[in-house]
Design a protein that fits this description.
By secondary structure, this protein is of the alpha+beta class. It has helices spanning 3-12, 56-67, 94-103, 105-125, 195-204, 215-223, and strands at residues 43-44, 140-144, 173-177, 185-190, 210-213. Helix 2 crosses helix 4 and helix 3 (94-103) packs across helix 4 (105-125).
Length: 224
């Protein structure tokens, strides 16, 4: 591990209180959340009736711990697609990937669970403490159903955070919710360094395949 990476981790987590003072993610309430990056067409409601992972809050905290020190605006695509976390399904070409993701919620759920397990193992090896959810470390949660027109318009504005098939970097994925439509919804957390890039990408996709959560919906998901 390079000294530069260690320095960036130390700086990124300087705002945390010591781990022994942090309540477990399962019981931490979302206190003062920040507002979504922009209240426009990319902020949409989500179906809150589908089942969510019981460790939703822990998954979110782990995603913040993993992505916060790694994300770089100049390399938004690369720094949100760690090879260690790549689910097997993401090894397919874009057309095949979307076809598999749309076929059933099982494919989406398995992909997310793979990422969650690998990320959890890596954080444990690094002895990385989990942050309180608080203000989500300045980031925000998005949802995607991958139901895109595959126009590739979002790649450049998002600097690769969204690829040519409008699929966000998998490092940010942390939960799946079955909705009865396509493969359901995948939730992800975008670190503050990438908020504007992600927002610009979401905004140019002609269809609503990826969007920011409303604050009230996010509060309900955290409390569920």
């Amino acid at each position: 591990m390079s000294s530069d990476f260690k320095r960036r981790v130390k700086e990124a987590f300087a705002w945390w209180v010591p781990p022994e003072e942090i309540a477990p993610p399962e019981v931490v309430a979302l206190s003062e959340v920040v507002a979504p990056p922009r209240r426009g067409s990319t902020v949409l409601p989500v179906d809150l009736t589908g089942a969510l992972p019981r460790d939703f809050k822990q998954r979110l905290a782990e995603t913040i711990a993993w992505c916060l020190p790694r994300a770089e605006a100049a390399r938004a695509g690369d720094t949100t697609r760690t090879a260690e976390l790549m689910p097997p399904i993401c090894g397919h070409d874009g057309d095949t990937l979307l076809s598999l993701l749309h076929r059933s919620p099982v494919a989406n759920e398995e992909a997310v669970d793979f990422i969650v397990a690998r990320r959890r193992e890596a954080l444990a090896r690094m002895n990385m403490p989990l942050p309180p959810l608080g203000d989500l470390a300045g980031g925000w949660v998005f949802a995607t159903d991958f139901n895109t027109d595959i126009c590739g318009a979002a790649t450049a504005p998002s600097n690769g955070f969204l690829d040519d098939f409008d699929v966000p970097g998998w490092d940010t994925w942390f939960a799946h919710q079955g909705t009865g439509e396509l493969g359901g919804i995948v939730y992800g957390w975008v670190p503050p360094a990438l908020l504007k890039l992600a927002d610009d990408g979401f905004d140019v996709i002609p269809v609503s395949s990826a969007w920011w959560l409303k604050e009230e919906d996010l509060r309900r998901l955290i409390a569920s």
